[in-house]
Amino acid sequence: MDFEVITEHIVDILKVSVSLFIIVDSIGNIPIFLSLTESVKRRRGVIFRQAIVVSFILLMFFSILGEGVLRFFNISIYSFAIAGGVLLIFISIRMLIGELSEVYDKEKKEFLGVVPLAFPLLVGPGAITTSMLSIQQFGILPTVVSVILVSALNWFILMNSERLNNLLGKTGSIIVSKLMAIFISAIAVEYIVFGVKNAFYR
Fold it and tell me: What is the pTM (predicted TM-score) of this model?
């Protein structure tokens, strides 16, 4: 590959990685991670590792096979983009008004690494939509590399969540969460525009 192609791949990887990382919002969710595992502090490391492995598998599955799943149900990627964008807007609104933590706090303490840590906290509808659309827009290589990078960042954040929480403080975590919500709403609009433009004007 020549220099231009390599540069293009790097730019694509950065675009997908940033979008995925913003939507996953592992930093903004640190207080939720800690509160959910408060009663099982000694097992936090094991639970967090389980969450990372499961979230990585889910993201990789939908990145590579998601289009086939849509085709099986006769759904176009553009319709999925519009639906995903609308869903992301609702998620961002709930993040802004602080309802997400109330929902997750009610989850049972069993299988925390899988539900709700891996799904839907780390890999929710937004992350699934982003990974599937990234395959369409940027190709499989940038998307797969981005999933690996974001999963590695999630691992670092989860394993150091107590330290990061002390560093950010309650106010810092709230500010980060609200900023991420605004970015998510902007990404949602991009998805809707992409879907509408291609579904009705191709």
Answer: 0.75
